[in-house]
Write a structure and sequence with these properties.
Number of strands: 0
Distance between the termini: 32 Å
Number of domains: 1
Strand content: under 5%
Structural class: mainly alpha
Length: about 70
């Protein structure tokens, strides 16, 4: 018996958020986010730098947590 789920048929959505070790600069977090949401890597990196300048503690903690928790692709 097969179940055809509509939400699993969509190929445009990546199934998991993971670090991208192929296009990484530091740990691959920004590249993984860009790949998951289909955004330019440069835009995500610039947004991360801007967030780091405006709210450094929260952004730094979030980046370290994402580095530890996100799996490698």
């Amino acid at each position: 018996m097969r179940y055809n789920r509509e939400y699993s048929v969509n190929k445009g959505i990546n199934d998991r958020l993971a670090k991208d070790s192929r296009h990484k600069k530091l740990t691959g977090v920004c590249a993984g986010i860009a790949k998951h949401y289909e955004l330019p890597r440069l835009a995500v990196r610039l947004a991360a730098i801007a967030a780091l300048i405006m709210i450094p503690v929260a952004t730094g903690v979030a980046y370290v947590v994402a580095t530890v928790l996100l799996p490698e692709r």
